[in-house]
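New to this. Explain the following:
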Amino acid sequence: MLNDCKKKGFVSIIVNQEEKIHKKWKLTTAGKITLAVAGVILAGSVISAITGRSDTAEESVETRPSETEIIRAEIPDFSQESETEPETIPEETQPETVPDPFTPQFSADAGFYPDGITLELSTGTGTAIYYTTDGSTPTPDSALYTEPIVIQSREGEENYIANRWDTSIEPVIVNEPVDKATVIRAVAEDAEGNLSEIITHTYFIGLNPQDDYHNTRVVSIALDESSLFHYSTGIYCKGAVYDNYGRYAEGYFIPANYTQKGRNWEREAGVEIFDTDGNSIASQEMGIRIMGGTSRNYVQKSLKLLAREEYGNKKLKCALFPDLYKQSNPDDDIKKFRSIVLRNGGDDYYGTKFRDAFIQKLVSGRAVSTQKSEPAIGFLNGEFSGVYNLQEDYSKHYIESHYGIPDDDVIMIKTEELEEGLDEDYALFEELSDFVNHADLSDDAVYAEYCQKMDIQSLMDYFALELWIENTDWIDTGNNYRLWRSRNITNQPYQDGKWRWAVYDTEYSMGCDRQGAPEGSYRLLNALIDKRYDTGVNFFVQPLLQNEQFRRQFVITFMDLCNSCFETEHAVSVLDDMYQNDYAPILNQGFRRTGPDWRIDSDENMTAYTEKLIGYEKTFIEGRTQACIDMLTDCLSLSGETAEITITIEHPELGAVQVNSVLPERESSSWKGIYFTDYPITLTAIPADGSTFAGWKGAGLSPADAQNLTITVPVTQAFHVTASFF
């Protein structure tokens, strides 16, 4: 077998015959075999294929090999692994679930109770019920249910996960007891040995959704201890990967078990979600993975939760996010998910934790994909694990839900790698890249051809956003960009084969590295103009700026966003609302759990530090539009002259006015914006159903132009125009 693997340039190492965890590693130029972590085998600690536990819990989490047992090897470049790499092991055949009459029934609903309760379990025709209280998977080897279960408050109990040393290279040991809940997981067995689906319910005794969590959503995750902390295969600990590779690494990326990606590092878990009133709205088995980049090294991990048919349900069905509807059909709410994300804040982990959620909320509704997000409280095996952003997950299923494209027809690129689609689909991305790099896009005919390949409004919205927030983990690092398209071209909306852009991971921005100073350097826009790479995100726009048609529309779009999404009063209002109502009440308890140590202080000091950061963001917002005007003027050789336009609507209940790409809220009687005098703007009157447009007044319009629904008006100076409807 080894010789065969050498011919193919990799070696597959199997940990044990039960789990068959394996990984591919290339041979080095010297012919040495670079072994994966799976090569570290713990004597006497074989994981059960049934329970996922080791022979003893103590062995599974504490046993460590001696120095001579640790295999030394070169450090592989884990950062290049893909979240969606092809599966290297076949999916295991799951036991068939038994019909509903066999499913364990709980006498008390999951949720919050002021005092202890007594829980009874029953099953229609099953002969036995087995259950666990530690988060582990119930099996016939678990406790047999014979009498009611008394569930009491766990206040004051010693921490388990919160005082572990192996969850981070900079662990935070929490000495004070954190909040704890009781997780009951149960399975029924009939006379033939068939097992029902697993039912997981969480009980918060002595805790209150309002007083303790300020009506924040709660997500409870329960899984085998070994899935989290087994030295070789636990996904939440440093483990063998760190001992083999991480301890020798330098820089930001330190390999550990929790930095591993792909299906081999997914574990089954019971997931229960509670709404803002503390009611359970979903409970099912799901897959769980650690996700993110360098933020995996933090004590609190970002988690991806995946619904799969093999776990019992191929979709998570519940209303997670208010006002979430399909772009292809705004009357249709999205209440089904294949995967969701619990995000730790990424690069904003130590800050406000919601900067990315705030930025994405500002541009929702534009021609870019965004992720709906809500604050959430997390529990891991019944123990409080911190404050998260509960967020939509980008995938082919996201595109299907939002845009109506069949999931098997979706192509998605993430930072130059194929994230969704067939291997041969990458050629379509390469074709796009080659076209941009070699075509003369200053030619309007060539530009028109490019517009058949790219949704230009999506591209302009995306680049204007990233430049306005000055994302420093983006263009000059060639990082954090996604674009997608349909493989096939039909006459259905969004199935036109055009590439469109998705916003994510934006938090390292808004002057976060200079106390919110809005001016900043021009390096981002300069990167578009002065550098031309064959790879990286900037090559999508740099050649386009040579085309006057695109250049004009890009500048207008940029100012559209400055006058709407990023308008100072609006953006500050959204920021204040998210902070005061969503995050301020829960952030401090999150920091006390997850650290870092320097962030843990009195409530007063922790709040003061957070509000100082919020103040920096406001400083950025208040000065950023003028800074961008200066930046665009210098980098694109504009005049620098701007003028304010004012739009008034008579009887706004009868109609609205669209300004370029901006459609102000209906029933707004007045709207103002600032635009460069270099280019005219376009106004379009939109009568409400049953109403008629009566005409325009002002702006020096001729009688004929005043009757047109759409007019183009030069911005040579400030002007006021009125739209009338009847």
About this structure: The two ends are 81 Å apart (CA to CA). Residues 70 and 243 are 7 Å apart (CA to CA). The first strand starts at residue 10 and ends at 12. The chain has a mean pLDDT of 86.
